[in-house]
Design brief:
three-stranded mixed beta sheet, elongated, binds iron/sulfur cluster, mainly alpha, 2 domains, 8 strands, disordered N terminus, disordered C terminus, 15 helices
Length: 380
């Protein structure tokens, strides 16, 4: 039996459930990612040790030219496009040899040391030969899981010349690069540009006849609200402004869209060129799953439009806890890419917003001043 539900069938079903689906059909605005855009960027093959060497040379004071053409090229590629896929390839004797890159980029310390150093790094990263990730994800993962060169690039005891290690292993350069962090490798978004996007996107919300919001941001709005009577906007997102719009116009239509939405333009993770979220540790991957999980629970799909009051009523009726969405139901973290937001582990803010129906119809509506210490939209 074919269980697929066509748009027409759903519209009928939604009407039968009493859901006022006002409009269907995905369209993208200037700050949205649009649907189905292919990302044909080829993966760049790198040796695992080269990621550490990039950090090491930045720690030694390198900026753009790292004094090694290969390392310089890797850093330039990551800076030009932080989502550029990097494939970790190394020489192994086992079933993973299908991805062996050859010895041309081995360093001078010999085959055995080169093989062990790469596998040591993959083991610490929890990855395997051939794994591919966006550049920013891989560098963040190295920084998170490899704090020092000791034990990887050189050993405390010299057991033989074969295991003499890299001459820089005890220099402290890697540790210095590690201390500088991700911003020294991939500079953050320009603050003035973020401020400009904040201004224009808040104006867009203020003037909007309808809001365009990705599904799981309805929950983030709730976590931000947290049952507070008075809210204050933050520079990093437009959650506060979207809540205000809903409180002041409970019947305002909300269209559920894929990818970045009206909440995102001022965010440090928002890439205005690709109109994608480039949050590290594969934030965009988690967010897509959260969006689809919300749609499934609500029985809706991208492009559907409901009045705000009705949409939040449905949200709070069908989703009792952020753990159902942001904790994947069971609260188990199975990989760094599938980490769990702190507000899913401590669910009280969502519960309080749910109890108040986001302050819709409450008096007084939210104000744009007074409260401090708002949550960031990016706690994941
Ligand atoms: S110690 Fe040597 S091998 Fe290790 S990261 Fe630094 S330069 Fe690279
Ligand atoms: S738990 Fe985190 S990701 Fe989930 S809705 Fe709340 S703030 Fe957003
Ligand atoms: S982190 Fe959240 S608010 Fe920022 S761009 Fe990504 S989805 Fe949007």
């Amino acid at each position: 039996m074919n269980h697929r539900i066509s748009r027409r069938t759903f519209t009928g079903a939604a009407a039968a459930l009493g859901l006022p689906v006002l409009h269907e059909g995905p369209v993208a605005s200037a700050t949205e990612s649009g649907a189905g855009l292919p990302d044909a960027c080829a993966a760049l093959s790198v040796r695992p040790y080269q990621l550490m060497c990039v950090i090491c040379r930045v720690g030694a004071g390198g900026t753009d030219d790292l004094g090694d053409p290969r390392l310089t090229a890797i850093l330039a590629a990551a800076r030009q496009d932080p989502k550029r896929p990097l494939s970790l390839r190394c020489n192994v004797d086992t079933v993973y040899r299908y991805q062996n890159p050859g010895r041309a980029e081995d360093t001078d310390e010999g085959e055995l040391f080169n093989a062990k150093r790469d596998l040591d790094i993959l083991q610490k990263l929890g990855l395997v030969p051939g794994d591919t990730r966006p550049a920013i994800d891989l560098f963040e993962r190295v920084l998170a899981q490899i704090p020092q060169a000791r034990g990887i690039c050189g050993y405390a005891t010299l057991t033989s010349d074969t295991w003499r290690g890299c001459p820089q292993a005890a220099s402290g350069n890697y540790e210095q690069g590690h201390a500088l962090g991700i911003n020294a490798l991939i500079p953050p978004r320009d603050a003035a540009e973020k401020a400009r996007f904040k201004q224009t996107s808040v104006a867009a919300i203020d003037q909007a006849a309808a809001l365009r919001i990705r599904p799981h941001h309805l929950l983030c709005m709730s976590c931000f609200h947290g049952g507070r009577d008075t809210l204050a906007p933050i520079d990093e997102d437009n959650l506060c402004e979207a809540i205000e719009a809903v409180q002041q116009q409970p019947e305002i239509p909300i269209t559920l869209i894929a990818g970045v939405c009206m909440i995102c333009p001022p965010c440090g993770k928002y890439d205005p060129v690709s109109k994608l979220c480039v949050g590290g540790r594969s934030m965009a991957l988690r967010d897509q799953k959260k969006d689809l999980d919300v749609l499934q629970k609500l029985g809706l799909k991208y492009g559907d439009t409901l009045p705000a009051r009705e949409l939040f009523r449905l949200l709070y009726e069908r989703i009792a806890s952020t753990r159902e969405i942001c904790g994947y139901g069971d609260g188990v973290t199975r990989a760094p890419e599938w980490s769990i937001c702190g507000s899913a582990e401590q669910d009280a803010p969502y519960q309080q917003a749910r109890a108040m129906q986001l302050g819709i119809d409450a008096e007084p509506a939210a104000h744009r001043s007074g409260a401090a210490g708002s949550e960031d939209a990016d706690p994941r």
